[in-house]
Amino acid sequence: MKESRGESPGVRVVEIKHSHDGQRIDNYLLTLFKGVPRSHIYRLLRTGQVRVNKGRIKPTYRLIAGDLVRIPPVHQSQSLPVQIDDSYRALIEAAIIHEDEDIMVLDKPAGMAVHGGSGLRFGLIEALKEMRPACPEISLVHRLDRFTSGCLLVAKNRAMLPSLNDQFRTERVEKQYLALVRGRWQGGARTVDLSLLKGRLQSGERMVQVDEEEGKDAESRFTPVEVFAEASLMQVVLKTGRMHQIRVHAAGVGHPLAGDEKYGDPDFNRTMKGFGLKRQFLHAQSLSFYHPRTGRLMSLSTPLPAALSQVLEHLPR
């Protein structure tokens, strides 16, 4: 990382090295400003205090080796050390299903956010940085919604990110989910390719909607696993990784996800609560990718959590 003098006191300009090539600017800043709330990082980007090659960028911008990044000063009071209790630490350690010197795959519990922000002091990634002090560059490779459980891939050093990011971009990563949706699914396996557009409500809440004109391409393959009287258990394979993709695609074809409070059917959700459902029924069942150092195909899977499998046992056929 090469620095030059900034244009005002406290401001610096950093030249991006090859080790950060392909990394998203928001993740780069989160690592640079350890412990700073995600909301503050996004505010720096939204207000143009962080710039790349003198221009404004979105949080999703991917850095290129040689980029010049304007870094504003961040007060120490905005960066407090993360302190996690023993029970949270034990929960995360128990969730690790694979770990080596380069990567980690966890069976993320439902209810655990992958990062801090939106009122949360810290999330899984901030806790992992505290738990693995020898890995200061530990980073998320992809994300799961807070109330989605299952396989989550984490890179323990920046050298792994370019290969893993490229695998996600070129659709060489296979992600399979289990989802319970409203109604009896008809017609066997179906590919849903509705384009999706991200937006925000006046409250600031992030929403995604189907928009075939301005939305980005998105593709999900739904295959029925078991059909019940009022619901269907589906295996969903993602070809793309848009925000809330499965939830919006399911709702878009008339089969909203059970327990989904944002895109779901309130009446159906109440019915499912009667069968013991206390969260959205979405689980990242398996993840396949190539290890960036060895080239070996990694295929990892996690069972459906007991809280969800018990719901299926009570559903009428």
Structure description:
By secondary structure, the protein is an alpha+beta fold. It folds into three domains: 2-78, Structural Genomics Hypothetical 15.5 Kd Protein In mrcA-pckA Intergenic Region, Chain A; 86-162, 2-Layer Sandwich (Pseudouridine synthase), CATH 3.30.2350.10; 171-314, Pseudouridine synthase (2-Layer Sandwich), CATH 3.30.2350.10. It is built from eight helices and 16 strands. It has helices at 25-32, 38-46, 86-95, 124-131, 161-169, 245-252, 266-273, 306-314, and strands at 2-5, 12-15, 51-52, 68-71, 96-99, 103-108, 139-140, 149-155, 174-182, 190-192, 196-200, 206-210, 220-227, 231-238, 282-290, 297-301. The strands form three sheets. Strands 5, 6, 7, 8, 9, 10, 13, 14, 15 and 16 form a ten-stranded mixed sheet that branches. Strands 1-2-4-3 form a four-stranded antiparallel sheet, with no helix packed on it. Strand 5 and strand 6 form a beta hairpin. The chain is globular, with a radius of gyration of 21 Å. Mean pLDDT is 89; it is low at 76-80.
